[in-house]
Write a structure and sequence with these properties.
Length: about 300
């Protein structure tokens, strides 16, 4: 009895093994591809031409394995250095957004493998930046940053297109130069700001000088106009001046104080109560003539 218990039934063992093999086979024959990925089917060591899309797939177990490749937009950050056209050392940080074309995923896996980022993408980014930086001076790399990024974008795209890698965007996040060059740039900017300030001051002085000239010209013209007006008035006065009008103006401006004597030898009285005095008679005659003229 003890011997029968120690020796299990061979049939039972075979059944258990078959069930275990069946479970493992079922597990290995089911493949799930996550969203944003494709599956490269490798059967007996050979990559199959058609990649698997998202979802559940059934493959031949034991002789088939599936390698997943990410085809979503990914980011590569590269720190690199190059020489500008004026032989300045430029350190840069470049961020590249890229993705793998689904139709070329199998080709990329066959030719490059799964580590394509380090093998082709990062080196091509560095090489494209070196080639692009050599076309610009160190200063123009800063002032024409968008053009530099666009040129690097075109260069990387043309280099990686053959591998099925699509470049969506290239951004240069940082430029770094030597301390000597940074100091030279700062001094140049300071000199330009001073020159601009001096130019503005010169324009202000010119404007103020023009204002003074215009003011002086205006004042001179005003003086000329006043002189012309005064001359015209004087001519008009001369035209209409008569002895009677002159006497009347003198009388109207008289302050009421009469001179007592004229300068003569002996002094002659100017006014007296005698109506026969010639000065009184002349004033009276002048008033009468003016009144008669007004009545006419």
């Amino acid at each position: 009895m003890s011997k029968q218990r120690e020796n299990p039934n061979p049939f039972f063992i075979v059944v258990v093994l078959l069930l275990a093999l069946l479970v493992v086979g079922i597990y290995c024959s089911v493949c799930i591809i996550e969203p944003g990925n494709v599956g490269v089917v490798i059967r007996l060591g050979e990559a199959q031409p058609d990649a698997l899309g998202e979802g559940v797939h059934v493959v031949i177990p034991f002789i088939t394995r599936v390698k997943s490749l990410d085809v979503k937009i990914q980011k590569a950050e590269v720190k690199t250095a190059a020489a500008s056209r004026d032989l300045q050392t430029v350190n840069a940080e470049i961020v590249v957004n890229y993705r793998i074309e689904k139709v070329n995923a199998v080709k990329l896996f066959r030719e490059i493998g799964i580590n394509y980022l380090a093998i082709i993408i990062e080196p091509q980014i560095q090489e494209s930046f070196k080639a692009g930086a050599a076309k610009y001076t160190a200063e123009s790399l800063i002032t024409e940053r968008s053009a530099v990024s666009e040129g690097i974008h075109e260069s990387i795209s043309s280099r990686l297109k053959q591998f099925g890698v699509i470049i969506d965007a290239v951004n240069i996040t940082n430029f770094d130069f030597s301390p000597e060059f940074n100091r030279a740039i700062e001094e140049k900017m300071t000199a330009e700001q001073r020159a601009l300030q001096a130019e503005k001051e010169l324009e202000r002085y010119k404007f103020e000088a023009r204002q003074k000239v215009e003011t002086a010209r205006g004042e001179a013209e005003a003086v000329m106009e006043r002189a012309k007006a005064e001359a015209g008035a004087l001519n008009l006065k001369k035209q209409y001046a008569t002895p009677e009008l002159i006497w009347l103006s003198a009388v109207e401006k008289w302050d009421g104080k009469l001179p007592t004597h004229l300068f003569a030898n002996p002094p002659t009285p100017v006014f007296n109560t005698n109506s026969t005095n010639p000065i009184n008679k002349s004033i009276t005659d002048t008033k009468l003539k003016i009144q008669n003229n007004n009545v006419q």
